[in-house]
Design goal:
Blueprint lengths: L11 H31 L1
Length: about 45
């Protein structure tokens, strides 16, 4: 890729999907931590 190439911006739909997937990943990570704390705390 040359420095003179125009920047290839992703379309709006793709950016929305990426943002949604990022939020879902954060939610899943938090849920996994909470689940582990509950399992360890209950043992």
């Amino acid at each position: 890729m040359l420095w003179s190439d125009p920047p290839d911006e992703p379309p709006e739909e793709l950016r929305q999907v990426q943002a949604m997937l990022r939020r879902m990943g954060i939610v899943l990570a938090v849920a996994a931590v909470v689940l582990m704390v509950m399992l360890v705390g209950g043992a």
